[in-house]
Structures are given as structure tokens and as C-alpha cells.
Amino acid sequence: MEQYPQSPLMGQMMSRPLLISAIIEHADRNFGGNEIVSRRVEGDIHRYTYRDCHRRAKQLANALTKLGVKMGERVGTIAWNGYRHLEAYYAISGSGAVLHTINPRLHPEQIAYIANHAEDQYILFDITFLPLVEAFAAQCSSVKGFILMGDADRMLATTTIPNLMCYETLIAENSPDYAWPVFDENAASSLCYTSGTTGNPKGALYSHRSTVLHSYASAMPDSLNVSARDTVLPVVPMFHVNAWGLPYSVPLTGAKMVFPGPALDGKSVYELFEAEQVTFSAGVPTVWLGLLNYMVQNELKFSSFKRTVIGGSACPPAMMKAFQQQHNVEVVHAWGMTEMSPLGTCGTLQSKHLALSAYAQQAILEKQGHAIFGVDMKIVGDDGAELPWDGKTYGNLLVRGPWIISSYFRNEGGDVLVDGWFPTGDVATIDADGYMQITDRSKDVIKSGGEWIGTIDLENIAMSHPAVLQAACIGVAHPKWDERPLLLVVKKPGAEVTREALLAFYEGKIAKFWTPDDIAFIDALPIGATGKILKNKLREQFKDHVLPTA
Description:
Elements: H1 21-31, E1 35-39, E2 45-49, H2 50-66, E3 74-78, H3 83-94, E4 98-101, H4 108-118, E5 120-125, H5 130-136, E6 145-148, E7 164-166, H6 167-172, E8 188-194, E9 202-207, H7 208-218, E10 231-234, H8 241-244, H9 246-253, E11 256-259, H10 266-276, E12 280-283, H11 285-298, E13 307-310, H12 317-327, E14 330-336, E15 343-347, H13 358-365, E16 369-371, E17 376-380, E18 395-400, E19 422-430, E20 435-441, E21 446-448, E22 451-453, H14 455-463, E23 468-478, E24 482-491, H15 499-504, E25 518-521, H16 535-541
Parallel strand pairs: 1-11, 3-4, 3-5, 4-8, 5-6, 6-7, 10-11, 10-12, 12-13, 13-14, 24-25
Antiparallel strand pairs: 1-2, 8-9, 14-15, 15-16, 16-20, 17-18, 18-19, 19-20, 21-22, 23-24
Helix pairs in contact: 1-2, 1-9, 2-3, 4-5, 7-9, 10-11
């Protein structure tokens, strides 16, 4: 940890550590009667309050202590967004152990690798994932037991899972009389693995300090803008970068929280939005695509939904406009990554922008946004020299800040920082007002004849065509130009568009040499564990694609 010189005159303020347990204590004390609503894996709707959540989290903390879980040891979870998972968030970290959220969309062998690498002592899981846990449980050498997050009547005597325990039985057997321990705020609090790196997944190990600071920052008005007047439904999973910090920032502000459980189809999400009068949500574009299509097909409108944050991958402008123009829902474009806890930027307007035309405002909002306080960023060339913030020059994006990793868990990958900055792997521009725009991932950018072609712009234009549901652009080999763009398109149900018509759709919108050389229509795009399009699979699938000759 970096050391800084001490001033000859220190401040005379209380030195209270920033601990995650303080968030749920605050929610209980100040917003104790506010609701937490969950659609359970059992199918019904569960309701209780922050006070109930705090009480049960302390019961679970007592249970973990009796099971022998010590400070700094990891406890895994494989669960949907729900009240039991929220209890585990606070019980595990608050007791001094480390919450390790595991993505159930990974292959069983990957999960076993991650659990062993983390040395998880116990793994809590929703019954939905029973077959998955059965597939990898025997490979987990450090795990002492598995805890089924359900009632006693859900326990299965025939399962092959060793030392299986019942979550609700553990809760019932333990007292809520528990004093949250006080310790160094730099202690590890949670562990998230990212598959966005080369090789095996690597762990980002967050601290109590980094998490609390991130929670403060994400609740700010020009960030996620969460308040006690909101009803918040996190669509982004709690197993994906801690649901972008919402399990912390929502209780911190006292907002009503609604959990969707495993039902993330358009119909289920819409019905829960309306039943609970949700005002704010956050998620990746693929989920919103399903919701918007369901609403179009059934001629539906929102009655309460006012604001959404879209991140994980670039939000297509057509999606942003659909929310804003058809449903009067404000879209905040956000950017971050697992290594950043994850929030880095949010796209909101400044007062000087309010007099601009709607077109000019939209151009600003389509960028990934302005850095929130706590995040510093810059763009550099391949030689490491910093590049100007002119909105045109693009370079490799680097970041630093108190909730950005300094190294991966167990120092996997060695020293990842470059002169104290974390290289994000994104290629971006930053304008004079500090608004950053991702033009591509460094591994996805197409290099054609020595010029770079950003795939995100090409995908966004394609998705603004009324017949296109999804689009992805990759580079394929070309004998003269090294690489040229190939556009892969999924058409909307019942819609038709030809290759020639879609290529003509690009005319006048981009530099001519950016226009894709070919278009392939496919039934579906491969989607990864975090909702992102797997371009590596597309590159493998179309590596032998022959581009038409001019």
C-alpha cells in the first residue's frame, strides 16, 4: 500500500473505519420500515424490511462464526438477486470474512477453478443451481460445506453434494444478538472474478473502504442518483460486479429495493416494474432489448419508471432513443469494469448544455460520460505519451482511484499498473469537457491499411435500422488491407432487409472506408456470462469468411 508523508498538523476528527456493516446498520436505524421486495426462485413474492434484513444478516453472521469462518476467509455465493443474497452480502463481509460472488453462467470447470483459487470455505446457492453445484462440488478441495438458500422442505436427501446444509435452518438456530466487529477499513470485503482478461479468470479483491467510497460516489446526483424517494430494481445480477454496487448504495440511501430473482424476460420484468412502481433500474443492453421488444409487441407503457442506467457494453443510440422518446425514460450511459468496482463514468448533462439543441444534447448523452469524483482517467498513445482531450484523438484509456485495483488477487498476472495507472483495454476519446467515449476494445478494433476502424459506431448505425435487432462487427483477414469489417446481423422477428440495403444505410454516416465489406445474417449472437457479445467466438466462427471482391 502506498505511503504518504504525514503533515505536521493533523486534523482532529474521529477516525471511524469505513465498514460495510455500517451501511445496513444505517438502513435499519434510519429507514428500518422501508421495503425489500423479492421475486423468489420458488415463484412467489416475498416482502420484508431493512430492519428484518439486518436482523437476519446478524443471525447468518452468527451461523458463519459457529461454522468456523474466520476473518479474511472467503465464502462463495451462487444466487440470483434476492433478499437472502442481500443478507449474505452483509453477513459475510460485515463479520470480517470475504464475500465471493460466483457467476453461475460460467462452465462448471471454470467455477471449480475459481472456488479453488479463492479457497472458498463454504458456498451458498439458490436451488435453481443445484445441478450446477452437483457438477463441480467434488472438485472443490477447500469447501467444507454447501448451504442451500431455501427452506428445510427444499432439502434433497438424494443429492451428491457433500455436507449440505439448509440456510433457513441456520438462520432459525442462531440469535440476532451479534455485534459487528470493528477492524481496519482496508481489510478485504468481497472478491469478484473477471473473465475479461487473458488466461484463467482473475480476482478483483475489494476492500471495505473502497466499497463504501464507491457506494457514496455512485449515489451522487450525476452518478446513479439514488435517493430515498426511489424504488430501485437492480436488473444487473448480484453475481456480476456486485450488481454495480446497488446492494450497498440503495440501503445507504434508504430507497425501496425490488429484486427480480431468476425471471429476467421482458414480460416478468415489466410486470414487476408495474406491480412495485419501480422508478429506477440498471442493467446491460441485452436485458433492455427483451423488455422493449415485449412492450412494443403488447403496446405497453410504463406508469412509474423514470430512469435507467445502462452499462456493461455500449448502449445502442437506438435503444436510448426508444426509452427516451417512446417511454419518457431517462437513460444514463455508464462505463466501468470489474477492476473498478465497477463505476467509472456516467453520462449526464451540465447546465451549459441545457440550451443546446436536442440533437447536440443527444450526442453528449451517447458518450460513456464524465468521470465521477474518485476516478481519474487519461488516454495515451502506444508510446505511453498522454493524448489531448479534443474529442477526436483516440488512445488507450487508463484510470486510477481509490476503488480501482492495484493488482489481481494472489498477484495473478504480475504488476498490472503502468506508472500507477490501470490500463483498461479500452480505446477512447475524451473531449474538452471531460466526456469520454469508448470507440472500441483494444482487442476488437479493426486495423485496416494502417487505419483504425471502431466497431461500436458501425454496430450502432446498423441497430438504428428498423429491421435490425442486434449487430456485431468483427475484422476478418484481407489480402491487401490486413483486416476489413464484417457485420453480423440478427433481424427482428418478421422483418426483412437485404445486404445491399443495409450497406447503403451507411452512406453519409461514416467515412467511406469504414463501411463493412460484407454482411452475414445469423439467427443469434453468442452472449457471454455477463451479457456481452462474445466477439472472440464470432472471430473464430467467421475466420475463414471470404469477403466479396470489389
